[in-house]
Amino acid sequence: MRTSTRTFCLWGLLLAAGLMALPTAAQPTGPTATYCNPLNLDYGYTPIPNFATSGRHRATADPVITLYKGDYYLFSTNQWGYWHSPDLYHWTFVKRSFLKPYHTVYDDLCAPAVAVVGDTLLVLGSAAQKNFQLWMSTDPKHDTWKEAVDPFPVVAWDPDLFLDTDGKLYLYWGSSNLYPLYGQQISRKTFQPIGERQEMFGLNDKRFGWQRFGEYLDNTFLDPFMEGASMIKHNSKYYLQYGAPGTEFSGYADGVQVSDKPLGPFRPQSDPFAYKPGGFARGAGHGNTFQDKYGNWWHVSTMVISVKNNFERRLGLWPAGFDKDGVLYSNTTFGDYPHYLPTGTADHLQSRFTGWMLLNYNKPVQASSTLGNYAPNLAVDESIRTYWSAATANKGEWFQTDLGQVSTVRAVQLNYADQDAEFLGKQTNTYHQYKLWYSENGKKWKLLVDKSKNQTDVPHDYLQLAQPIQARYLKLENVHMPTGKFALSGLRVFGTANVPKPAAVQDFVVLRTEKDKRSAWLKWRPVDNAYAYNIFFGTEPGKLYNSIMVHGQNDYYFKGMDNQKPYYFTIEPVNEAGVGPRTQVVEAK
Which residues on adjacent β-strands are paired with residue 134? Predict the structure, then answer.
């Protein structure tokens, strides 16, 4: 609801009365340090005017992370630079254009390929003509680059560079709803192609339901797209990953096919290995799989917004790995909740989820003002696609969320929305400033986080508290916005509430259609105190690696199956106290 001027003035008087203040929350280090998707990066704005006709907005996608000389390097589409990090949490941006004056394109390093060859980092962007360079550096942290070859001889969109353990270098590429992925060996010395390009494989949406185009997997409007090739090797097997069926949709995912040889033939894993069609921020497609300093596997990929433009997107990071049978998986369960950062060797089949639950889903809210139909409740509806906007960007605009009861708060995520933004392209020296307050009774307020002097751009600021607090109300007060109105797609509060955990789901049934084995209707009896459900599925009862989070309903139409295999399902309820028991596994033949 919109609060009155009287309420706003009263709150101002309370603040002026000299309230108790706590130090700004700091990001803990060591085994307790956490992160939360979408990654809190200083994302650039789309540089393409035709993509901004419905509103200027932040956008990037197609990420690749590699470990080089003890640091992680992150490249993604159209950022006019790249990031480096010592720990996968604190990222430093290096401004850099990889275009030459004669390049007449907006895309600066679109869907890049990155490889470490010897002591050198190689970077290659997508090319529509044979006039783009392969870049090399031994000191990327200080923006020291030169051309490894100019021009690169292969015209490749969505490229990937893979250095095999025998020293041979390969290029993979492709982005089409007609043509397959391609692969070719490249000379490690001259970077010239060796032999002819070879077809790797294409999509088969008639068999694999998740590959169908559209938000509802119905192939309406276009045939599905295949893109984002990315190769890794594990135990002498080659895993060629790819994104499908379209970057605009919740079901945007990364699939994989496996071979004994770098150029095939390949055999498919039935389901995508990186899949997140539900929750606050959806999608887990077109990314890459890499190892951290401790040898653990991770997957970084594209998350979907697609409101102001189809290519409005963010980045997410997921624990990944291989099971004992060589199946590649990525754990996206609670994928936009707080997760622990790596500190050593870990089994990623065991969740890195902290167990901190969302405390304010669809709970009461108040706001200082509202712009049009951008209502306050849209900041707590668990959809990054919807948002509340204040009428202005003025200092003092505020948003308040009510947890319903005094709860233990451990972290807060602030997700800003782009309302009336003015920027095109990557910006530097921009920043958000705010204060975050908390209260047990809505009358006596304490300062939790003071970022009124902050000088950094934090569009998805994640605040892990040094110590948990007891609070029922949290209030975000605007001090400064980098551009546009003060707007939030999600003020998300994490911790635990003093309520019973939900009981197990009853009457869970899977109705797989006889007409189309790719599809099924899942139904269950609602659990009274659950706000969401996690549905787990897979083609073997002991390998339910994929999950779908469903809010506020007790059925789900799942259209992503391999029509040649049986499927297995289980479901668990979720509330502010934790997770209830999973049901027995149900087989759907």
Answer: 124, 149
Specify the length of the chain in residues. 589
Tell me the two tokens of residue 390.
């204040």
Q: What is the pLDDT of residues 531-571, one digit of tens each?
A: 999 999 999 999 999 999 999 999 999 999 999 999 999 99
HSE-CB at 445 with a 13 A cutoff on CA atoms is 23
First to last CA, the chain: 48
Burial class (CB in 10 A: 0-12, 13-18, 19+), 67: middle
How far apart (Å, rounded) are the C-alpha atoms in residues 587 and 541?
8
Work out whether the CA dihedral 426, 477, 404, 22 comes out positive or negative: positive
Q: What does DSSP assign to residue 262?
A: T
> Tokens at residue 280, please?
């606050």
What integer pLDDT is reported at residue 361 of this predicted model? 98
Residues 6+ away with beta carbon under 8 Å from 382: 279, 280, 358, 361, 362, 490, 532, 551
Amino acid at 509: V
- Model confidence pLDDT, tens digit, residues 15-34: 333 333 444 455 666 678 99
The order of strands in the sheet holding 506-512 is 506-512, 520-525, 555-558
Collapsing DSSP to helix, strand or coil, 508 comes out as strand
SS3 145: strand
**Contact assessment for residue 77 and residue 107, using Cβ atoms and an 8 Å cutoff:** yes
DSSP state of 78: T
Burial class of residue 30, CB neighbours in 10 A (0-12, 13-18, 19+) = exposed
| CA nearest to 315, candidates 484, 68, 74 | 74
Query: Residue 97 CB: number of other CB atoms within 10 A?
Result: 11
- Token representation of residue 183: 């692969």
Mapped onto helix, strand or coil, the DSSP state of residue 131 is: coil
Residue 154 CA to residue 16 CA, distance in Å, equals: 65
- The partner residues of 495 in beta bridges, in order of sequence, read 357, 409
Rg (CA), the chain: 24
> What is the SS3 string spanning 325-394?
CCCEEECCCCCCCCEECCCCCCCCCCCCECCCEECCCCCCEEECCCCCCCCHHHHCCCCCCCCEECCCCC
The CA distance from 570 to 121, in Å, is: 44
* Single-letter residue type at 540: E
Is the CA virtual torsion 91, 94, 98, 99 positive or negative? Answer: positive
Chain center to CA of 6: 40
Residues 575 and 555: their CA atoms lie apart, in Å, by: 17
Q: Is 499 helix (H, G, I), strand (E, B) or coil?
A: coil
Residue whose structure tokens are 């055999």: 267
Give the amino acid at 436.
Answer: L
- Global pTM value: 0.94
Q: For residue 400, give Cα distances in angstroms to 2, 9, 22, 413.
A: 11, 15, 19, 14
User: What Cα–Cα distance (Å) separates residue 566 from each residue in 38, 415, 520, 541?
Assistant: 33, 40, 12, 10
Amino acid at the residue 407: S
Determine contact, residues 502/529, Cβ cutoff 8 Å. yes
Beta strands 567-575 and 532-538 are: antiparallel
Q: Is 221 left (phi over 0), alpha (psi -120 to 50) or beta?
A: left
Q: How confident is the model at residue 221 (pLDDT cuts 50, 70, 90)?
A: confident
Look at strands 193-199 and 227-234 and give their pairing. Answer: unpaired
Residue at token pair 């604190």: 90
